[in-house]
Amino acid sequence: MNVAATNLFEIVPLTEHIGVEIRGLDLSKPLDEATKKALHQAWLDHIVLIFRGQNLTQEQHMDATRVFGEPGHVGRPPKYFPEGFNRVLPGIMFISNIRENGEPIGALPDGEMMFHHDMIHHELPHKGTLLYSVEIPSHGGNTLFASGYAAYETMDPEIRARLEGKIAKHHYHYGSVQRGDDKGTEASAASKHPVFRTNEETGRKAVYVNRLMTIGIEGMDDDEAMPLLEYLFDHSEKPEFVYSHEWKVGDLLLWDNRCSTHARTDFPSTERRLMLRTTVRGEVIPY
After folding, report:
1. pTM value?
2. 112 and 264 Cβ atoms separated by less than 8 Å
């Protein structure tokens, strides 16, 4: 895999199917329109963009988000703030295991998480997500990204033909990181979306089901649907389609939620982890 150089920045591929590192850009400084356009195209081409060594204010993080679209809604502001924070801008969410007064200050605090698409259990899933590392544990907490394009294009043609045009059902209990547990019973949401989603900006199809939240296929009994879904889960998560990111403080990652899934490895619960998350607002998915 070769480094692609432009007069604006370098694009360094990380795997064959997904992920590049963008070098030569300081996102704390204003970007001209040519650079914004080139970054947006790099995102469409490579699904995951990694910017190392950034030092961003919340305002600069939001500016970076706007390069890729309208920032999305991220829910209620935190009840407590970690050291160094006395506010959080609308549109920014804490992803953290830090506890104040015995309560986590952020969402998704502990443990591993299976592969999923952000907000697929809603009518308007996020188009993209940006995650910025402020504090990280000594090990673990890696984020894995899998290409839905590669999964779609290499799957068994008979299964692909069988599932074209089908609609999958998704459900998620907030607070739960493993499907079927009882940790997140206070609120839940459900949705229906195509099994294979066409990215409206690229015209490419991707597998759009995931192990964490997809629970069935419309018009199929579970005896028929679940073996097909298990095939899709296993196929989509093959190592050759996956990039595993080992975090450093100051990393900013952007991923295209329309054509990739992501997962998280476990990390020491006794060590602090603080990420700032923004999203790019999605659109209604036609089917």
Report:
1. 0.92
2. yes
Q: Which residues of 223-259 are buried (b: 16+ CB within 10 A; e: fewer)?
A: eebeebbeebbebbbeeebbbebebeeebbbbbbbbb
> pLDDT, tens digit, for every residue of 184-230?
333 468 999 999 999 999 999 999 999 999 999 999 999 999 999 99
37: helix, coil or strand? helix
Which residues lie below 8 Å from residue 41, measured CB to CB, with a gap of 6+?
Answer: none
147 falls within a domain: yes
As for how many domains the chain has, the answer is 1
Range(s) of the domain holding residue 147: 4-280
Report the run of H or E that residue 125 belongs to, with start and end. none
- Give kind and range of the element (H or E) at residue 134: strand 128-135
Residue 42 is part of a domain; what is its CATH number? 3.60.130.10
Q: Which two tokens stand for residue 50?
A: 């990694």
Please check whether residue 286 lies inside any domain of the structure.
no
Could you give the CA distance from residue 253 to residue 50 in angstroms, rounded to a whole number?
Answer: 5
pLDDT above 50 for 240: yes
